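Pair request: fold both.
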Amino acid sequence: MDPRISVSAIFDRLGVAAHDADFEIVACERCGRQSLADHEHLRVYTDPDDLRTLALNSVGEVWPACRRCGQADWDFVQAASIDEEWLWVCVDGSGTQSRKG
């Protein structure tokens, strides 16, 4: 779990009770567009304003095109920082807390 992330902020936005999750901000490897991944449930939320917009990150699921570059075959990598549109997920609102390894 990324220590910068406020799990309660995410569950509040989802409108569900807190449960096991492994959230991380990830970025498209091609263009850097960020998404919120829940590795526990294999979900990737692609719209910071509407968490109903998601993709399932599992074999056989249709993967949507990246919302920025439009590539259908994009993959994601760990985001080093958190873009402004996703700052609401952060514990301190800045997204700059260093990662602990």
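--- second member of the pair ---
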Amino acid sequence: MRKSILILTSLLVLFALLSCEQDEPTRVNANDLPEIIGISADPPQLGKGQSTTLFVQATDINKDELQYQWSSEKGVYLQGMDRKFAVWQAPQNLGRYECKVAVSDGKETAIGTINIDVIDVPLLRVSTNELDLSYNLTSVVFTIRNDGLIDLDWQITSGKDWIAVSQNSGSLKFKDTSEVVVTANRENLIVGDYTGLIAIRSNGGAKDIAAYMEVAISSEMAHIPAGEFIMGSENGNEDEIPVHNVVLEDYWIDKYEVTNAQYATFLNEAKAKGEITSGLDYVKKNGKFLMYQVPINRDRRNVGCPIYYVDQKYVVERHEANTPARFITWYGALAYAQFYDKRLPTEAEWEKAARGSNANAYPWGESAPTKWDCNYNENLGYLAIVGNYSPLGESPYGCADMAGNVWEWCNSLYKEYPYNKDDGREDISQDGYRVLRGGSWDGPVMNIRSALRSYNETEFQHPSFGFRCAK
């Protein structure tokens, strides 16, 4: 009997348990609220109109992708309103402001808040983001100002040996300013472009100023010995014949084409002496056009004239200090040469310097040109820095870029061969076409033979007309 009762009791307990399991609700697609772990602001306190970076850290137990949305009644979000990071700019009034962030997993949304105090603080203001110590500047000035009501303590460091500052630290009261002189030291630096940062740190903020400088190539001349050379070519155009021997005394000629940095220096020095006049897009001397200031932008490079007249001074566009001067007329080339007690090379002098005494077809010899020898046929798409093809493209006397880059003005009038220096063609007072030699960056290969002759009017301008000097 007792055994029967125990069996019946067990059956009743089992039935009760099964009934409870059937009554318990089943959880389907359960979702948990995202959890906001923390919100921070850097800096947590700031001055009027300053900005701070807000960051929210959140997780979701269901591993759903989270979405973010920042908001506030005051101030402005500069970026990142829908990201973990947001940049909030304070209003122009002191006080405590609340910033909110909504974190959603697509079903549930958690709200977090952070309070930002806008207080009186020192405010660093710097007059520039960038300093341009161009090809001929030794120093530039920028200004530090405190726009906050509390004293601003600042320090400056420069990361480059060629950058020096007049003062490394200071303190400024409200609305006070301090001028800092930045000096460039080009000694022992090779020709080229240099960049660096000037770091300003203070209790009112930080600022990095980019500094840029070009080291310009110096004028260098090659000596051409006296003697005889062969002028002209039987394989060229009709004006290159007859081939004939010409005897020249020794002379000097520029190793490189005159650069924009050198020509801008000449313009500034000549203007200081009252020898030239500046127009909107030209330079004149004694009524003659010397240069046309016509920029031509192509593929983010200026293949036209990169010399500008700014604040009563001629300056050169960045990265163009060491490219050849262009848009120069024959009068412009002559004026430069005479200003430095030089002259333009005669056509015969130019050809001998380019091809040597053995009548080479090209400055480097008889082999056909390649992109390693010179700048022609738009191989680069713009003008090259002078000397870019040295030594492979140099002439027997060490002259660079006598093929391609820019056409070069010669002193000579364009006359028939044989060449005769005493027939009036070297008289600079005579009117007529003047000779151009060497070809250009955008011209075909046929134009860069050393014997090829071209010519144009003395005041004609072109984006590939330049020159070099002789003496």
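Observation on the second member. The radius of gyration is 38 Å.
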